[in-house]
Write the structure tokens for this entry.
Amino acid sequence: MSIRPLHDRVLVKRLDSDNKTPGGIIIPDSAKEKPQEGEVIAVGLGTKQKDGTTTPLDVKKGDKVLLDKWGGKEIKVDGEELLIVQESDILAIVE
């Protein structure tokens, strides 16, 4: 299935976090926090302005991003968990 987010929304796949602490302790899934890092899968066309023009988004497909911890809406596409966020919920692009 192909999905294209609308306007200023971005489709993100969360990247897995480590299962171990730096000291070597294994963290069970029930105690893990959701990762705040993800990869951009698709982006909308941009924000519509009052004069009818569209301002493109700063992120693009393939970018690694840091996400707001509580932002976005979780969805399942073809059995894969993805996140739809507004561009304002993206804190930074990891370079």
